[in-house]
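Input set for joint prediction.
Command: fold jointly, output tokens.
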Amino acid sequence: VIETGTPPATDLTSRPTVEERRVIIAGEVRTLRLLRIGERWLASIDTEHGPTLGADHSPYLAAARALEPIGIGLAEAMAMVGPVRPAR
Amino acid sequence: MTLTEPPRTGADDRAVRPRQDALTSALTQFDHAADHLGLGPESHAILRVPKREWTVNFPVPMDDGRVEVVTGYRVQHNVARGPAKGGIRFHPATDLDEVRALAMWMTWKCALVDVPFGGAKGGVTIDPRALSADELQRVTRRFATELQGVIGPDTDIPAPDVGTNAQTMAWIMDTVSMHAGYTVPGVVTGKPISLGGSAGRADATGMGVMFTAARALAEAGRPLDGATVAVQGFGNVGEAAARLIHEHGGKLVAVTDVGGGVANPAGLDPARLKAHLAETGSIAGAPGTDPIDNEALLGLDVDLLVLAALEGQVTAANADRVRARVIAEGANGPVTPDADPILAERGVTTVPDILCNAGGVIVSYFEWVQNLQSWAWPAAQIEDRLEQVIGRAYDAVARLRRADGIDSRLAAHAIAIGRVAEAQRIRGRYP
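tokens >
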């Protein structure tokens, strides 16, 4: 069954999981931030134009969207995420 | 080939053991990878089922005057990344569930090697060895006609698979062209070169097996040159893989096919095995060899075991007897999901099927591109580009495997499913 209609409200009282990854992009060490809120993940990395943002149920796909604007492909982005902690 | 020859096969299509349920394997692998990715419920639900399926029943006049009703299938699992791509197999045991599983694997395979195709598969439930060349041609042309409007260079592009070959593709191309009123070479790949087929297509899958196996061996600290190798299956894939591995210094010590097997610790010459196969119908009994059966081959202490027969060959029941350092899955699904953890525990590295045998679809993509451009690339260019594309996919899988501490099969599926899910999301929902 595919969920349709209005998604359930995210429980903002739950403690968010924040993870950071030191990644090397074009020889420069940068920080990929991963934030878990409820069932979803946000990913972000700073660029000269400001921070990017990716959101998804999957931390890997969220990271892929955050890294895509700076030319990082999906497979490389997934490897940058590495193992993620299970939900608390 | 001549019209009187039976079709050569993709993998060795003569099962050496009853098959495991391919669809169960495919869905288990998908669910496992989707869990690892954290795939959302909508993407999970969409990607777990085929997008489109056709079952056709059609009458075929036989040489003796009888009319047989033949059943065929075409399944398009997903087309988010491009036209559907996948082989057509002629096999007496082919059914809709098997075709569904194979179509799903094609989606992942195309996505993993990053060619712009979705996944499809077709099957006709017949035994091609029991039919004359004329009967085969009638089955093929009628099946192609039943798929009128389904297959096409921009929609769904078949290729040879188990029990079909370049001649089969030529008949399909001709049938589609007759209906269109002009020649449509891009409707199929794996055609004869004289009809727009690509150089290197016949050996492409075996070459991909050799390239990926060599990388896996190198990672294990053992170069292909001098590595001991056993090969299960001596059809198009197994024969080409064995020959190319031999040419690159691998020492072939055992090979099996349906008629039996041969072993020689001092090394086997694949050219001689091929000659014996052509003469007798099996490699069994080739001069200067000792007999070996499949179970013994699977348990050989070798550096590389190439599985190029059918699916479900290494299972939980026999995985603990495998002593190879690396398994290369030249066939689709030769290792069942319940065998994977047993092999991992034993330190066996598996090059998963959607990576290992992707050479065929990569060169099919090259053929499709050449057809659309009306341009033929030389064989050396095909080989270089194949190594480049499959090598890039191998490196991506290895990088994720190391980063996440997971096995290659899970890494390969996670990358592939991630790419398809992302394409699906970006395209959006219609309406």
